[in-house]
Amino acid sequence: MFTYYFDLALRSLKRNKVLTALMVLAIAVGIGASMTTLTVMHVLSGDPLPGTSSRIFYAQVDNDPMPGDRHVEPPDMMDYQSAMDLWNAKRADRQALVVNPFPEKVSAPDVSRPPLMVQMLSTTSDFFPMFGVPLEYGSGWTPDDDRKRARVVVISSDLNDKLFDGGNSVGRTLVLNKHAVRIVGVLKPWRPSPPFYDVRGGRYANGDTASFYGKPEGLFLPISASLEMNDGDFQQFNCWSMPPKPGHLVNAPCNWMGLWVQLDSPAKVAAYRGFLAHYAREQKGLGRIQFTETRLRDLMQWLAFNRVVPRDVKLKMWLAFAFLAICLFNTVGLLLAKFLRRGGEIGVRRALGASRRAVFAQCLTEAGLIGFIGGFFGWLLALLGLWLVRHQQAPYSDLVHLDLSMFAVTFVLAIAVSLLAGAMPALRASQISPALQLKTL
Amino acid sequence: MQIRPILSALKKHRVATVLIVMEIALACAVLCNACFMIADRLSAMQIKSGVDEASLGFIALQGYDPKNSNDLDARVIAGLGAISGVESVHVINSVPFGMQAANVGITLDQAGKEFRGVPEIYLGSPGTPQALGLQLVAGHMPANEDYQPVQGYFPPSSNVLITRTLAKHLWPGESPLGKEFWSDKYQFRVIGVVAHLSVQQYDEEGERGAQWTVFVPALPGPNFSGTYLIRAKPEDLDRVMVEAKAAIATIAPDAVLDREDSTTVPVLRTRFFAADSAMAGMLVGVIAALLGVTALGIVGLASFWVAQRRRQIGIRRAIGATRGDILRYFQTENFLIVSFGIALGMLLAYVINAVLMKFYELPHLPLYYLPFGALALWGLGQLAVLGPALRASHVPPVVATRSV
Lengths: 441, 404
Known about the structure:
The complex is a heterodimer.
Chain A (H helix, E strand, L loop, with lengths): L1 H14 L1 H29 L10 E6 L18 H10 L4 E6 L4 E4 L8 E3 L1 E4 L3 H4 L4 E4 L4 H5 L4 E4 L1 H8 L8 E4 L2 E9 L31 E4 H7 L8 E2 L14 E2 L2 E5 L3 H21 L7 E5 H7 L5 H31 L1 H9 L4 H35 L13 H27 L3 H7 L1
Parallel strand pairs in A: 5-10, 7-9
Antiparallel strand pairs in A: 1-13, 1-14, 2-5, 2-13, 3-4, 3-8, 6-9, 7-10, 8-9, 11-12
Helix pairs in contact in A: 1-12, 2-10, 2-12, 2-13, 10-13, 11-14, 12-13
Chain B lengths: L3 H9 L1 H32 L10 E7 L6 H13 L4 E6 L28 E5 L3 H5 L3 E4 L8 E2 L7 E7 H7 L9 E4 L2 E9 L18 E7 L7 E6 L1 H18 L4 E2 L7 H8 L1 H35 L1 H9 L4 H38 L8 H25 L11
Parallel strand pairs in B: 3-9, 5-9, 6-8
Antiparallel strand pairs in B: 1-10, 1-11, 2-10, 4-8, 6-9, 7-8
Protein name (chain A): ABC transporter ATP-binding protein
GO molecular function (chain A): ATP binding; transmembrane transporter activity
Pfam families (chain A): FtsX (PF02687), MacB_PCD (PF12704)
């Protein structure tokens, strides 16, 4: 039966080419626009650590002593004292501190290349296992290296390509400013979307958060060694009074360290919350801090709190769907015109014994076919749209690709939309009474 | 033209009428909001930097030993100054649309109680305000003795220039000259007011804070070096910057050129607003596509109606209606339908705007967008219906006598 309806639908589409083309065009443009923006949204709002993100938490303590109304939320980062106290307490299954020094001059003494300025991340040994960072060669450093302030470094595959043509560079030496450090690990190409461990301050960004989706740092080194090598080069998140020396933040009245913890069971999460609250109260008792708000958000909550998906991306998506809705109304109108114009033909079919259901099914088949063809052209338009996005200068441009699931969504959406558009006209068509139509013939 | 018969005729085509009304309503709502967003982006892009942008370039060096900063600055100023076409080279911490160099919270008292916001601070060596082309509106430019060494972040006590906007914000209705403000232990005294000097990167305060800037005269040293303002004639600037970047390798082999930030101010400006102009361009595209689809929808349905009513039209023609009457009938019909759509669309436009305001921090949609949206859609409707209506008016009266 379906093949017969399909054949009828094809014939009908061929009969009025202009109207068919208009409908296919409307669906294709609507689907192309909405799939382009939906794919960008899908890429940017995905879980950067699928499987483990619900066990990863970001800790916040309100250590800012300034009076005022800003103590509803603790600051996004911690000062040295708080971060070190919490880290040294080792109450989590895994824990990593993160700090961003300014970019450093990097050269490889046995390679004749001009020095590069490279963005680095100072962190602790658990960073690699906790965030599932893939390594090509070697490994991360050990907790022992953290303690001994070992001058070791893990480099990105990108930097490894630039300096060592992608070879196994474990054991080789890099010079950061004037300090020699030994490479212990080289990452595989790693492009989390976003580099979530660096996300902070989103509430001050006014929705302009595209910069969260930049590439990960080129160098990862132990905080303990970094504190010696990069002193004077640290960036503060905020300060409540001027640090005595710019960039020297260890005992400065500034927030500049982030703490991530892994907690493997709900009981541990509850215990850690209690521990944070207890720490804040204790510090207030000691007079070091004035406010006791603390937060422990899991990774996805932290990303949501920072509103990581840029305002523009969301706006574009809603615009595209509004556009799709207009295309849908349009298609409904055109289908209605088309089906009702064939009132005579439908009347004859009804008079010859076709049931209302049969007429309805045949009209829907035609609508679905239009949706499928529209979906195909919509898919091509979406590919074109994504190609345009990739050629923009946005930090996330390189991430945007149409994966298999979004490919499937394109066709499902196109056919669903056209069936939705076709339902009402088909219902109208199926209610044409045979007698009335025959009379007018 | 009588409206009542048209309305009762429309009742017979309730579904199709509702569809077009909905399409028009949605188009009206999206159109008003999209136009408003375009205007919003374009006005943000019109921000006055207050400097002679076309004559200015910026060079940033990194990776050198701060101990050698005086020597480095001397070499770079001499080396870049020797390039033909360069009018002057100054040490400056950043330029409008360049990297964010310093923003600090300021208070009107030394005790730090009267907090007044977070302006951005420009540090510049002697001659910089003139090289930037700042326009003085009150007071005077810093004299040579106002340029002092930086200790920590700023000179401990400095005589500064502020913008008119910041002056009004700090001391509304009063002359700012001679007034003081503080940031922690650093003291600033206003000696001059400039018309405009925009921030380097604005987000937090939006357009309101875009002119909250302070120019602090400073002498280069270990905490203030490695970043330079180049001034050249606009026609020379691009060539000068290419030569300057190439020359850095020989002038300062100990430093690494920050390629991203070292460019002309016009390039920095374009880059800064790239996302906004891309968004505005996309919105224009959406509006065009939207109007196109809406027009096609009207053409499609109107043609269908004309085809359906051929006999009826023929009868009307046979009993004396002129071609003009038929034409006007369809035009009035379209006008009525579009008007319903617009009425609904205005309501929808406000609902959408309220949602956007809530979730996307967009300002309030000004009322005057609505009549413009309405005019556009009325015009579009009349244009779209013209073809089918003309065809209808050409239906000969003899059709009335035929059976189909």
